[in-house]
Amino acid sequence: MASEPPEHRFAGVQQHPLVAVDVALFALTGGALYCLLVQVKDGSFAGKWAFPGGLVRADESLDDAAERELFELTGVRGGYIEQLYTFGRPERDPARRVVSASYLALVANLNLSVNAGARYGAVKWFAADKLPPLAYDHDQVGRMALQRLRAKLQYTNIVYSLLPKEFTLGELQEVYETILHRRLDRRNFRKKILALGLLRQLSKKRLGTHRPAALYAFKQKRPMVIEMV
Description:
The chain is α+β, with helices and mostly antiparallel strands. It has two domains: 18-153, Nucleoside Triphosphate Pyrophosphohydrolase (Alpha-Beta Complex); 158-218, Arc Repressor Mutant, subunit A, CATH 1.10.10.10. 23% of the residues lie in helices and 28% in strands. The chain has four helices and nine strands, in the order E-E-E-E-H-E-E-E-H-H-H-E-E. The strands form two sheets. Strands 1, 2, 3, 4, 5, 6 and 7 form a seven-stranded mixed sheet that branches. A two-stranded antiparallel sheet has the order 8-9.
């Protein structure tokens, strides 16, 4: 007689995996890149920080679920968001079997009206290179999101998602230098960016302590594959 199969730690609890989304949201300010984290309120990871997210509803797609989670937490709708990777190790959540699709999202500033609500203990922006130890497998999510952001800055135009409507070429260059962690030649950078034809120069200028700086805006805000730097 065949022996009984070994007892599965999820047997009788959840026979099929639940599906969730997690969103790594980045913003840039003051020459530094930040990431929004939430504090887990209950369970094995209570008190730990994690990326915001939740279970996918029966009537929505993964993308819709990620956009909903982002909107409920920040009020942001229609910003840049893309799927990163699906994480499905059985042990990733000690409480139940959950498969999660992670997402990268970008916003132009930190001044969002974030609300922890009843789901989270707190919500806070952290410097992207100084994140605390994260719950679940979110350390891996964070590394992958940052790698994707750095890569896509170089061959797409998604930088528009990290900038205000109006900006100087110096501010645009600062975004690249901050995220890529390297200096760019000022003259070569400006020559190449302007030659791409993605920007339009505005009639007004930014006044400051030095001579007025020309202001620019993106002609269109939709993802494009193009060699930026």
